[in-house]
Give the backbone structure.
Amino acid sequence: MYNLLKRSPQPIKRPLGCLSQNVLLTSSARLSLRYFSTPKPSRPPAPPPKNSFKTKYKQIKLGWKQLNEHPSFRTWASFGMILLYVATAYAGIQYLNDTKYKATGDPNPYKKKEDLEKERLEKTQIGEIKDVNTSKQTENSDAHKKCNHDKDGLNVPAPRDTTDIFDGLAREYDNKIWFEELSSHIWYRRRQLMKQIKGDALEVSCGTGRNIPYFDKENITSITFLDSSKTMLEIAREKFTKKYPEYEKVQYVRGKAEDLAQMASHSGQKFDTIFETFGLCSHEDPQAALENFKALLRPNGRIVLLEHGRSSYDSLNQTMDKKAEQRVEEWGCRWNLDIDAIVQDSGLEILESKKYHFGSTYYYILKRNDDE
Ligand SMILES: C[S@@+](CC[C@H](N)C(=O)[O-])C[C@H]1O[C@@H](n2cnc3c(N)ncnc32)[C@H](O)[C@@H]1O
């Protein structure tokens, strides 16, 4: 059948005139075929989809869907969620318990022994400020505010208790003086001074703890910070606790330098180094303070001072004298005290003395004159 169909029928005999017509037909068909089969210029390939937020979101959504369909995923996810709930509940109960024991002051039976011991140390040594203000508060009467023309005719403001001034200044103290200290290299003087501090040390008038950054815990066995202003002392304590949380031999005492010997008479405590920076100028009785340092110094101990006072230049002194009263009111400091005279009157032996800033900054290393 197939062969029958395939077998071409008898060729149609066309007259010769038809030949040209035939040729024309086939060539036009070829042409049109060529025309239609010519590949059209293809479009440039579409750029790959940008890695936009939308596509990423879709990918994640798809991934999550696939993950969700995984048979073991749901089991593990439920298990994880249960664990999370249990851990949160446990932490919550612990926190509530802790708060309860803190509030009642009872020892927490759930805490480890070491943790309890650490807490106790923090409370008693690092945390507590001993309040040993023994001297009677001096009244800031008008008589105290008047200038005192001392024996050498210096225009030094009358002594007064500056505790209230420093209590008021405390929180802004660092912000107010950091630039002055940086530009006048006081930070460097502090660093040099702190290299001299050894053994059991006492810092008098510690203020906001501006010497703490240079504290050398390798050489200092214990440190006692003393200041008459509770707020200044609080700031020093915050700084020290933050920087040396593990240092245990530290105590904070609120009291006056003038009462030191009386304060220490109960404990009999003495020190290898007693130091003070920019404190004498703010004391009511700097002479009494130095007497106390001497009394609390161990044999071969050292007193190290960085102070400011009258300069070696008269012109500078005149300016300081003029503004002395204003300075005490604002900064609680008598900046035109004759520090050399105070040190010499103390009867302490000067081992080293230097001056900076036109002779208005004093550095001393002193010892008791009965030491070898
Ligand atoms: C000028 S500030 C110096 C603070 C710190 N020593 C420093 O170098 O930055 C003086 C500090 O002496 C304290 N102060 C004033 N009178 C005092 C006194 N009689 N005994 C102990 N501290 C006193 C003030 O509370 C204040 O913190």
User: Anything to note?
Assistant: Residues 1-8, 123-127, 136-147 have pLDDT under 50 and may be disordered. The pocket of S-adenosylmethionine is lined by residues 162, 166, 205-207, 210, 227-229, 232, 256-258, 277-279, 282-284, 333 (CB under 6 Å).
